[in-house]
């Protein structure tokens, strides 16, 4: 009978074990959020820091943490990062061609082709009736090609790389400084674009002049074909050079979008990026992982290229619905003084079997089988008071405990608890029989035994460790 009661009690109490497995982490690293408080995360110098949306923002180091939310969700924001160095979501792919060698070859071939198609004019032929404007037309085309050659030699590579370096160096620490720097960079991009716009206009004009070319001395089909080929080659060279401008504009736009995202939107902390809300449901824990990756773009051999994605840092945040009392299951030892009466049978001098006292079993130390501590949560505290209730077993007799104590949370006593209270145990009692009564056998005695709580309650002192 006693063993059945013991198994039943232990089965019921042990169900709380799963519920409180992480209580130690909650108590030691739990961070209680007040109503309307938010989590603002910042990643600086390869380290995470956070603030809870206070009026005077003060960032402190962020480890893998547990946040205790008072409501149904937690708003999380990320201080903006330079997207040319870091990303917390996705990355864009940029394909860069190696153009320097191609540009050199193209420019070198221009005048080689010109020598082929430009025959030397014989003065005698001219005097014999050549159209007086043929040489002027050819010279105009040659001058236009020479001017385009000079313009295309100005690649603007150093200016483009310098502006990219400015974009890459933006720290995003202050909103006003970031916006001001972007405005300056945007203004500096315009002259570079204007340079290539003028080249475009010159190429268009060159093609128009080629189409207008009309000289009886030359085969117009071959001459126009060669000059149009030169114009096409210059167009391709310009397009290759302009890819640097395109990549610069892409990276500028990427940085600008992050700045606008951090600056815009009402109802959020200033200069942050809103992340998805994290649900906080009673009985459940949300595990929120934020990862910072090295990604974006960098200069390699003088060209803007995409960086390989590489994990830089990661933090796991557990969001748990706040409760003032944190349940925790633990084991330990209680020191008390309990007596357990025993009964048996004996045969008297006449040979009659009678009920007899088998003495008492005394316990001064009892191991906790299951003990639930309801810890009172105090933010950033090294000591947590608690109320406890539990059960311990020595021999066949279960003992109930209830009391109060302190859970210590500082070295060298980390995760040690001391408690004091009162204990009561089940004891065997006789329902109808008494010591000395005649019985037919031990079966009759066991049938008459019952189990009752012992009163008065006995004091105990308990020690618990290794939660």
UniProtKB/TrEMBL annotation:
Keywords: Signal. Residues 1-23 form the signal peptide. It comes from the Bacteria. This is Uncharacterized protein. It comes from Rhodocytophaga aerolata. The lineage of its organism: Bacteria, Pseudomonadati, Bacteroidota, Cytophagia, Cytophagales.
């Amino acid at each position: 009978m006693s063993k059945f009661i013991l198994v039943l009690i232990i089965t019921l109490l042990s169900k709380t074990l799963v519920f409180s497995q992480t209580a130690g982490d909650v108590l030691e690293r739990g961070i209680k959020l007040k109503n309307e408080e938010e989590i603002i995360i910042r990643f600086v110098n390869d380290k995470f820091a956070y603030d809870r949306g206070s009026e005077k923002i003060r960032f402190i180091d962020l480890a893998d943490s547990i946040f205790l939310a008072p409501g149904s969700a937690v708003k999380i924001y990320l201080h903006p990062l330079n997207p040319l160095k870091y990303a917390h979501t996705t990355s864009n792919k940029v394909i860069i061609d190696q153009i320097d060698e191609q540009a050199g070859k193209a420019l070198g071939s221009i005048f080689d082709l010109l020598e082929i198609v430009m025959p030397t004019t014989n003065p005698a032929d001219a005097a014999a009736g050549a159209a007086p404007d043929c040489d002027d037309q050819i010279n105009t085309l040659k001058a236009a090609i020479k001017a385009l050659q000079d313009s295309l030699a100005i690649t603007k590579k150093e200016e483009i790389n310098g502006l990219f370096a400015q974009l890459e160096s933006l720290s995003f620490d202050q909103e006003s400084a970031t916006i001001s720097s972007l405005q300056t960079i945007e203004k500096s991009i315009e002259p570079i674009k204007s340079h290539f716009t003028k080249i475009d206009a010159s190429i268009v004009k060159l093609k128009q002049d080629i189409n207008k070319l009309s000289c009886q001395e030359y085969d117009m089909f071959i001459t126009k074909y060669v000059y149009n080929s030169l114009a096409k080659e210059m167009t391709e060279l310009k397009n290759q050079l302009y890819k640097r401008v395109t990549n610069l504009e892409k990276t500028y736009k990427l940085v600008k979008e992050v700045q606008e995202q951090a600056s815009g939107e009402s109802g959020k902390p200033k200069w942050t990026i809103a992340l998805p809300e994290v649900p906080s449901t009673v009985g459940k824990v949300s595990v929120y992982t934020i990862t910072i990756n090295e990604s974006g773009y960098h200069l390699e051999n003088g060209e803007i290229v995409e960086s390989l994605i590489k994990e830089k840092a990661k933090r796991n945040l557990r969001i748990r619905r706040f409760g003032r009392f944190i349940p925790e299951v633990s084991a330990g030892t209680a020191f008390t003084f309990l007596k357990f009466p025993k009964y048996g049978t004996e045969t008297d001098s006449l040979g009659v079997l009678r009920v007899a006292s088998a003495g008492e079993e005394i316990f001064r130390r009892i191991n906790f089988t299951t003990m639930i501590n309801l810890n009172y949560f105090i933010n950033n505290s090294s000591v947590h008071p608690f109320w406890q209730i539990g059960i311990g077993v020595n021999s066949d007799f279960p003992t109930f405990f209830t009391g109060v104590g302190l859970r210590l949370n500082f070295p060298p006593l980390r995760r040690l608890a001391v408690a004091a209270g009162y204990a009561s145990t089940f004891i065997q009692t006789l329902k109808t029989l008494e010591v000395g009564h005649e019985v037919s056998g031990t079966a009759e005695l066991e049938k008459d035994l019952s189990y009752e709580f012992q009163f008065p309650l006995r004091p105990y002192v308990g020690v618990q460790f290794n939660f």
